[in-house]
């Protein structure tokens, strides 16, 4: 059964699966990648994740902006350590 339109945060299981995927494809330092996966999993909705998966090479501008913002935040956190 599909999920309805609107704001649908990821379930805990979906977040874990999403973060695993991010960790497999992330090329940065492990703690930055973990932060990035966690931040995106908490930021993106179910619909956005589905859209990103469909258009793997062409993320929507909105998703791309969220990704860039999350990565900048995680890199800044790492540089302060």
Break the fold down into its secondary structure elements and pairings.
Blueprint: H1 12-25, H2 30-43, H3 46-54, H4 61-79
Helix pairs in contact: 1-2, 2-4
Gyration radius over CA: 13 Å
Which stretches are poorly predicted, pLDDT < 50 over at least 5 residues?
Answer: none
Largest sheet: none
User: How many structural domains are formed by the residues?
Assistant: 1
Distance between the termini: 44 Å
Helix coverage percent: 55-70%
Question: Secondary-structure element sequence?
Answer: HHHH
Measured by DSSP, the beta-strand proportion falls in under 5%
Descriptive account of the structure:
It is a single chain. With 81 residues, this protein is mostly helical. It has one domain (12-79). It is 69% helix and 0% strand. It has 4 helices and no strands. α1 (12-25) packs antiparallel against α2 (30-43) and α2 crosses α4. The radius of gyration is 13 Å and the shape is globular. It starts with 11 loop residues before the first helix and ends with a helix. The model has no long low-confidence stretch (mean pLDDT 87).
């Amino acid at each position: 059964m599909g999920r309805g339109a609107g704001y649908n945060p990821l379930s805990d299981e979906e977040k874990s699966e999403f973060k695993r995927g991010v960790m497999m494809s992330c090329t940065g330092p492990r703690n930055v990648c973990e932060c990035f996966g966690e931040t995106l999993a908490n930021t993106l909705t179910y619909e956005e994740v589905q859209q990103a998966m469909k258009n793997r090479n062409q993320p929507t501008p909105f998703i791309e902006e969220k990704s860039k913002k999350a990565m900048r935040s995680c890199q800044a956190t790492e540089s302060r350590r």
